[in-house]
Amino acid sequence: MLKQDFLNDTIRRSVDSGLFARGKRFEAFLKWWEEMVRYEGEEDEAPDSRHNLRLQILQEIEPVILWAPPLSYSGLATTGRADKDAAMIYLSPMLEFEPMPSVIHTICHEFCHIYLKHHRHIDVDGAKAAVEAGLGHGGTPHELEVESLCTKLGFPKAAKAEGNSYLATIVNAYVKGKGNRARKMLSDTLQLKWE
Asked: Is 138 exposed, middle or buried (CB count within 10 Å of its CB: 0-12, 13-18, 19+)?
């Protein structure tokens, strides 16, 4: 698949199916794609290995549909995917509240999973070993492989800012005065630290 075909096909399928609309996640996808195809060398220079790897991924990746539901969706019932021939990437509405570099990294991270065919099989043993070692989800072999590829592509994981995310700050303000039960429920559900 040529790089322009990848952009048009991914956007067309996703937008036409009603699963991907304007917003921070859409803009982050475009920024990620622009960086993936950008070449910084001189015209007479051979592309570097990073640029070649980026183009290889865009040419070899299978068709993808991006699913970025609006924050207003509180649930969804469906009979299946919009396109059975395409892999699907879910982009949480919570990404709208995260810094742009974090959203771009998430998009790169998920596309790397598709490129590496992680969606085709689940590494149960690797996940179990990571949990037993106290490493959590980020310590699984699939996650470590994806983060390594993201770094090679020039999209390393952004350092987390100290404290809570923007969303956690809003939730903190909301539950002030709501009582310990509401705080405990939200803390458990959203894995938040309270101020």
From this structure: exposed
